[in-house]
Amino acid sequence: MITKFDSLFAGHIDLDDDIGYGGVPVNERRFGNERLATVFDKAQAMAELMDRLGYHTFWMAEHHFQREGYECIPNVLMFAVHLARVTRRIKLGCGFNIAPMWHPLRLAEDYATADILTGGRVTFGVGRGYHTREVETFGAPLLDQPANRELFEEQVDIIFKAFNEGSFSHKGKHYTLPPEVPYRGYQLKELTLVPRPLRLPVECWQPIQGGTARALEFMAKHGIQGVVGGGSAEGGAMHKVVLAWQEAHARAGKHIDLGERLCFGFHFFIADSREQGAREAAKYYEENMKMFGELRLVRALTEQQIEIMRDRHRAPSAKLPRIEEAIASGGFLCGSPAEIIDHLKALEAKYPALDRISVSLSVGVPKSVALEQLERFATEVMPAFRRAQAPQPALA
Fold first, then answer.
1. How far apart are CA 301 and CA 11, in angstroms?
2. What average pLDDT does this structure show over 357-382?
3. What is the pLDDT, as a whole number, of residue 236?
4. CB under 8 Å to 137, separation ≥6 — which residues?
5. Cβ distance 8 to 360 under 8 Å?
């Protein structure tokens, strides 16, 4: 049964009203530093509201160099430590730290520090990245996808060694840890992460995009849990991915039920009716499509459609994805509270082990609307799931 409700905030500032297919093209947006820094006030207001209303986890995404104002939080762990001081109960999720942009031991140390300082309220998460401007700038491959995955997998192997072993060593293609050097009168052969997380095993999440057998088996090996949909991906349960997830765990000798160890993510918009919601949310849906479609994260888009979305004059009347289609397919939760409850109850029936849902707001939704939407969801949808509970207060 669904007992946990989360929300993912990728870090968009309040954009100007000129959004949607007929609005300012993505690459023409520019904001100054003062405006970009407003993301922290916006995120804090969302976290504080969600904390009061009983949400389980406020997820944030790591991104860099986003002068267009879409994804503006570069250090999730640092910000999570701050948010833990201004909230009481809510978990703060790393959705996700992009491992190829880190040295794996620095990421492991920073998470362990956050785990200790927040009393266990930060949830770990890793991803491979999807912005060439970010990943390649930090010296890691992204255009070369096999190289990106190979690096990512070695890094995650190292991170879990560092978390779980009192001392460790590693020799791989990209890292030799420790380096074979003399140290204070002896030859260095092993390392100890200082500090290590106090709470083991570390709960870790990763987005599921393509759902390849290799990716799912790697996650199952490390006990990493998966987020399906939400953010840039199509929302909700992709049944074939849920089945493949179960099969990957079976090959690892682990039996799980349908929906277990998964979170289904949706974009959402509550209104008095589905038609009203579609009208009010359309411009946000379209801005989100403009931003993520350019990055080839919307698999259904053709190259011609992506090119058209750059032209504010052609795009409004072109054959492009529309919010009505996303609502009809179940990927975008929109409508009255009763309609949204019915959709989620159907998921409960289909996936009996599913216990977590994430509801997120499209790029472009301003702070005032975001707060209103999160409050309506908490007060008008969440009570229908009577077992839904916020996380327990952190230990002192």
1. 24
2. 97
3. 59
4. 64, 65
5. yes
> At residue 299, does pLDDT exceed 80?
no
Nearest to residue 278, comparing CAs of 5, 13, 20? 20
In this prediction the pTM is: 0.94
Residue 297 tokens read as 């994260």
The C-alpha atoms of residue 170 and residue 162 are separated, in whole angstroms, by: 10
Task: Tell me the pLDDT tens digit for each residue of 318-367.
Answer: 999 999 999 998 889 999 999 999 999 999 999 999 999 999 999 999 99
CB 92 within 8 A of CB 391: no
Contacts of 372 (CB under 8 A, 6+ apart): none
CB atoms within 10 A of CB 203: 17
- Residue 269: exposed, middle, or buried by beta-carbon count in 10 A (0-12, 13-18, 19+)? buried
- Among 324, 295, 300, which Cα is nearest to 26's? 295
Q: How confident is the model at residue 298 (pLDDT cuts 50, 70, 90)?
A: confident
DSSP code, position 395: P
Instruction: Specify whether the CB–CB gap between 305 and 21 falls below 8 A.
Output: no
| Residue-wise DSSP of 102-136 | S-HHHHHHHHHHHHHHTTS-EEEEEE----HHHHT
Give me the domains of the chain, ranges plus CATH numbers: 4-95+203-384 (3.20.20.30)
Residues 307, 302: Cα–Cα separation, whole Å:
9
Cα–Cα dist 22/83, whole Å: 36
